[in-house]
Amino acid sequence: MSDLEKLKAWLQTYPGADQLADFQVDYTDQLPGSFGVFPAGLVEVARQENILGDVSVQNQYNFALYLVLPKAPGDDVGAAINADWVMDFQRWVQAQSVTHKAPTFGNVNEGEETLSAQNGALYDADEEGLAMYMVSLQAVFQTEYPAA
Fold this sequence. Notes:
- Helices cover 22% and strands 43% of the residues.
- By secondary structure, the chain is an alpha+beta fold.
- Strands 1-2-3-5-4 form a 5-stranded mixed β-sheet, covered by helices on one side.
């Protein structure tokens, strides 16, 4: 299973995922319940080589998650419901990471990996009654490469 497939399967276990009708990669429909993951790539944070030639790399995956929910212009009640969903999702990600229920992506020190969701915010809203929210998701993990 690829890392993206692991992430997708895990995201679908979120208790509020029942509001999500469709999961897409690099695309989000303008329909309520559309959910898109936009991978922003892998960042190498640090690299160390030991005396045997084994290399340990600390990496970070970055994703942007987009969610389309109904929200009529000027509807404070709908806006609060959507904001609660986004904030609850971020708390759920934190709890999953702390309790080691989040997916892991490295091959060493998997218990030290972190997955975080932050900066959840309204990204766009239209006059037709749809709002798009964005949450930034980061996974920090370590991969070890044995000497050749």
